[in-house]
Amino acid sequence: MPELRTHDDEILFQRIGEILGQPGPVPADMEIAALPVDSFALVELVIELQEMYGVRFGHDEMRALRTVGDLARLIHERAGRDD
């Protein structure tokens, strides 16, 4: 069954697309390893998202993430959101 997405998710996926220079939102099921960026750009993306949402997470947590949806869940958990 597809995962329900919240308005916050839509904003997050759109913002990731903007940061990556994509014409629209990045799909939740997109593999992080498949993002069209090098490792430096990925670090910049993570830093911007952490600042945008006021959250912090470590390198080990990032390495455990598989998809953009996993990243959204981690941000929601750290921001204390349940949606």
UniProtKB/TrEMBL annotation:
Span of domain Carrier: 3-79
Signal peptide start-end: none
Pfam families tied to this protein: PP-binding (PF00550)
Species for this entry: Krasilnikovia cinnamomea
Superkingdom of source: Bacteria
Name of protein: Phosphopantetheine binding protein
